[in-house]
Structures are given as structure tokens and as C-alpha cells.
Amino acid sequence: MALIMEHVAEPKEELLKQLGNISTLEIFGNEVLVAIYIRPQKTSSGIFLTDNYRDEDKWQGKMGLVVKKGSNSMVPPSDEVQVGDWVLFRPSDGWGLTVNGVMCRLLDDRVIRGRHPSPDTAF
Question: Which of 92, 90, 107, 93 is nearest to 35 (CA)?
């Protein structure tokens, strides 16, 4: 069962704002840069998550926002994942890095396992 989180701002907009301008960042080949979704502190039912609990999302989070793609990623006929999509992946499949202070993963496009409109669905 997913925890429905209480969002002060829309998660996609908040992540993109934190990430800032990445227009000069080049991603090569079939790689996809995904910003990791870090859950907010409070659920919609009023439960507060500890900082330690939420900090695990940086390392074990399985949902992220596609923010940049390499020129060969998801080439037709598999051109399914677009910048702005929330995607599912196995954390160990990606290379962890920080871009403008935002935790990200650089993933081979083949290891993206799925997509969902809400980041609160997978932990």
C-alpha cells in the first residue's frame, strides 16, 4: 500500500526548480538522467516521517523524474519515456550523482522498468 504524501508544491515542479538550469549538461548515448524523488515529511493522513527514514530515498528510492536523455536513448520503436515522466528503476542499476544539489541517477535506458503519473506509488 502506497503512502499518500502531503505535498506543499507539486513534486515535479519542485524537483525541476531545485535542479535549475541543466541545459549545458550533455548526456551521451542511451543514458537517461533521473532526479530522485524524496518524499515530503508528512503523509496526507498526518504521519510524520523521520529525516533518517526519508534520507533512505536518496539511496534506495525507486522512483524518479526523467530530466535529460542521451541522443540514442529510447530510440524508436521504444520511444516511450520522455523528459518529465516519473519512472521506476532498481536503485543499484544506476550511477548515483548530485546535479546542482539534487540527488540523481544516470541510468541505461534499458533498466527503466516502468512509468507512473504519481511518484508516491513506489518506495
Answer: 107
Beta bridge mates, 68: 33
Summarize pLDDT for 39-71 with one digit per residue, the tens: 776 667 777 776 776 677 777 788 999 999 998
C-alpha 112/C-alpha 87 separation (Å) is 7
Domain 11-121 class?
mainly beta
Tell me the β-bridge partners of 88: 63, 114
Residue 32 three-state SS: strand
Q: What angle do CA 99, 37, 88 make, to 5 degrees?
A: 105
Query: pTM (2 decimals)?
Result: 0.82
